Amino acid sequence: MMEPLYALIAVMIASCIACIALRNRPCVTWIMPACTCVFLVLTLFLCIPILDGGVIDEGMFYMDPLSAVFMMLVAVVGCMASIYSRAYMGLENEEGLVNKRELGQYYSLLIVFISVMLLTFTARSMAIVWLGIGATTLVSTFLVGFYSREESTEAAWKYIILCSVGITIALAGYALVYASTIGVIDAEAALD
Question: CB 3.0–4.6 Å: which of 22, 82, 97, 149 could bond 33 by disulfide?
């Protein structure tokens, strides 16, 4: 049951490395959408058996039917967004609003964003989930401020401040949940 998950993680890592390494080449505009389509196929292959009541409970990974639904939702939306963005960003490039370097940067950020979101749904530990949410916040901040205009930069700053407050409140919530479990459950499993 773990093989599809390991395959998905391996493809995510390889795709992120490929898109970052090839960000200055025109081929990234079709590699990135192709990689997200592979993500979608592997995610469906992984999640459909879990929807039938299966559970992955292995080491640092845990997936139940609810996490499978959210993971499939992110994979579908990520695949559609990457396919649509190929045409949209191509038009932005033709109009001179973005150059080739910025286009590669956009695709690199988008695939890292989708990958981190997908991996967050597989984490067993609440601490790892919190780190995943923080990582998606950081990557999406760069996507919000993608255009190097004053409005984009202002929006990115507002976004990072708003999300940082939310993440801090979530961390306080995790700390309260952890504190309430002391003496009730095993200390080693408290953050699971």
Answer: 82
